[in-house]
């Protein structure tokens, strides 16, 4: 009986226990059924999430273009290859959609991806051997950023299980072209709010970094419900949010002028191997920067082993040397204390026994008693010091340095601008500042100040961004306008200083005679500044250890362009002097830029070359019109074998020099032989034919990707490789003598060497 009672009691307890569990579970199921939630998580939402695929629709990063719409930076499509390993992905065994043969796949992909077959085989096998096996695998860097050609080569193999994703890569079609302004962007990875690793293109330097928020745009997405194998359901509840592409940034740069500058600097870099070079070309009346370059430079498509990240034009202050004298003379003239015909004794200037004497550039020998006008022409340090100490007064001169904004940044729309420093504590520093020693400025500060002289006293703010445009609507979101920031001098003073600058170039005693142009008048000031030693113990010694520079403007009567060039520590031959590499850049860029801008020549005492009026070209027979032009001395290239001319790089009625290279495009365009062409000429051809141009290097064409005679259509790709002038360049020089003519020898070789 006791055993039976115990059994019944235990059975009762178990029944109660199981009933309680049943009630709890049933209640839980009823609660879940009624609320649709588990632990405050909606089962309906959880189910949707599990069967919903969501993909980012990346926004296209905005383009960077020059003022004329030439593309300088854009997103270029590339491809990432991956392999699907899961055999369940193949619905039809006769048409497999996964990797079937690892060895065959590896052997076929290896030569296209330029890797060892064993590397691909190991990646595939590692995915298969994983626990659990991986659905798909990738191939690291070797399988990314593939070109369209590589993708097509792989697709032709028809390998089962091999697929592609399209990715964007930032591309710079002109290579080192204005790289310190444009900068570069690259793909970076980040973790989103869901913990997933995403990637996007972000600006790193230059305009890419400065305008990153506007260029970036906003990504969209697409989501849909799918099955186990990622195939859409019949009712996928698809949601699409379109991406908002980034805005396009138009710069004030002119690709043709920038190309002229880059070519000239590459020539000097090859010939003289300087430590550093800077150059900038600016519109005198607006402040638009048309070209800017620093060397060493880098290729933003492959920014490795970069020797100089800084845009030296805005970020590296230097002692300006005698280029600053134009502002010293401008201050004296504006204050009414200057008499150009007044004489003084050149050579040395000893203010008092406590101050080290100031010496002129020829070791203090001077040129005897000369006028102050001649002192400017000869770049006399003594004349500059006398003007500040005796005529103007040191405090008044400091006021003018401030008026020319030598103590502040220009606020140019580029990242990384810094300002120089005016050393003005001791009498010696006040004297040396008058001729560009001790105190420092950046080239862009000098350019801004020079606009006051070029622009009848109105000093304008330099700028690089022209406008911001919405690419989807072509609406101009923001437009930069010229801005006059101050008027430090009067129009009369500016005109008088321009006359002095012209004497430096054209006067019989001028230090800048080798800067004379063929067709245009030019005025400017040469400079030779010593370089402080790294240990702070004075200056470097030796005739090459200098910064040779020139700040000038043309045409001098009514300047359109202002230009600054500096070349640091060039390797000179015994019979060469430092202004030769500087003058080569100034002459070739300024002369050709003014012609390109259709500025009327005004040069005097220059042998005139008869200009030829261009006849009507479009609609004409290419062979006949080419023969007519060649008879007049033109170098003519006919693009294609069509029956009529549809486009040319010159217009009817235009009067041009017979040295011009004329390009005639026919109604059946075909690729011409462009070997030996300059980059500027190829850019002109690409503009006319709307080709996608990709260039590597600088100088002249040594390789073209499209064979001569190949038919062309709009959007065709053209890749070229250029090399600096060398043995191949000698032949090109004969065709482009106007660009590369060397400076005429003069008997005046006076360089102002600041102590």
Automatic annotation (TrEMBL):
Residues 722-755 are annotated as: Disordered. Its EC number is 3.4.16.4. Gene3D superfamilies: 2.20.70.70, 3.30.70.2110, DD-peptidase/beta-lactamase superfamily, Penicillin-binding protein 2a (Domain 2). InterPro entries: Beta-lactam/transpept, Beta-lactam/transpept-like, PASTA_dom, PBP_dimer, PBP_dimer_sf, PCN-bd_Tpept. It is an enzyme of class 3 (hydrolase). It is found in: Membrane. It catalyses: Preferential cleavage: (Ac)2-L-Lys-D-Ala-|-D-Ala. Also transpeptidation of peptidyl-alanyl moieties that are N-acyl substituents of D-alanine. One of its GO terms (biological process) is cell wall organization. Residues 728-755 have a biased composition (Acidic residues). It comes from the Bacteria. The chain crosses the membrane at residues 12-31. One of its GO terms (molecular function) is serine-type D-Ala-D-Ala carboxypeptidase activity. Pathway: Cell wall biogenesis; peptidoglycan biosynthesis. Residues 608-668 form the PASTA domain. One of its GO terms (cellular component) is plasma membrane. Keywords: Membrane, Transmembrane, Transmembrane helix. Belongs to the transpeptidase family. This is serine-type D-Ala-D-Ala carboxypeptidase.
